[in-house]
Amino acid sequence: MATNSTHRERELQEDSDLQLKKPPLYSVFLLNDDYTTMDFVVHILETVFHQPVIEATRIMLHVHKNGKGHAGTYTREIAETKMDTVHKIAREHEFPLKCSMEKE
Predict the structure, then answer these.
(1) CA 2, 7, 11, 17: dihedral to nearest 10 degrees?
(2) What angle do CA 65, 71, 74 make, to 5 degrees?
(3) N or C end: fewer C-beta atoms under 10 angstroms in the chain?
């Protein structure tokens, strides 16, 4: 009976020694172009990235002045989905708005 108890204690110790790694995060950036309207970029930031209007406006102006702006940080799958959503909505509205993602 002592061996079963010792064996179980060893298994529990091995389990507690395992560290769960957090998934890597990716930043999603909106890229400036000469055709997409500022209002549309704010709309994208509000609807896709759930930014409040003040923050969405600040990010949009940063994109406009600097060429790209940080829209949010997510796991890879969510970042890819956000990018696909932005590109789909932009195409539907006939804007060339693009975004990219970079690993943190």
Answers:
(1) 80
(2) 150
(3) N
